[in-house]
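Changelog entry: the Class I SAM-dependent methyltransferase record was regenerated in this release. Current contents:
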Amino acid sequence: MTEPGFLTETRAFYDAVATEYTDLFRDALDRMPMDRAMLRLFADLVRAERPDGRTAEVGCGPGRMTGPLHGLGVDVHGIDLSPRMVELARKAHPEVPFSVGSMFDLPFRDGELTGVVAWYSIIHTPADRLPEVFAEFARVLAPGGHLMLAFQVGDRPLHLERPFGQPVSLDFRRLRPEHVEELAREAGLPVTSRTVREPEGDERTPQAYLLARKPVAGG
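Regenerated structure tokens:
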């Protein structure tokens, strides 16, 4: 089957900018208390649901969230479309397993995971393909499992052309929390928490964090 063009473009973009991206965001979490708090909350939720449960960060890049989740006691596996990003993630976090893969076809059995994190990683998927992504998240989550999403809020995409001088470009799609909440609910993952904060530092738009949970039968 021929790969969709947007996946090919996304992989090429992140392969090209992987080193500069990693250097730019290496210590960003240290300056983002809200992000740290949301990661800690998610870690608490998945460990409370099942202490030995497994979590995947989908679109993990160089592991800048995967590593901290591991440090919070979460059994986490990083998945990214970009082989170069996965290479850098393995180098930075040798204690964490990382794999090259797509959020459209996650390498996990049905109901295998207690948690899924998609941290600014659904933003390169065209709107008409997002239901497939949420269906895949729902497939791999066990009943009671938690999904965490982070994304920029807005209606117009940001187009990056030749970042870091590299000959690539890509659209970064901003999303409306209510629309993402609807997508999650339609996939069988009702949202349990929605948080939106105002822009900080160089950010141009509000940032959203959504938590959803796969229902437990009879719950």
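The two ends are 40 Å apart (CA to CA).
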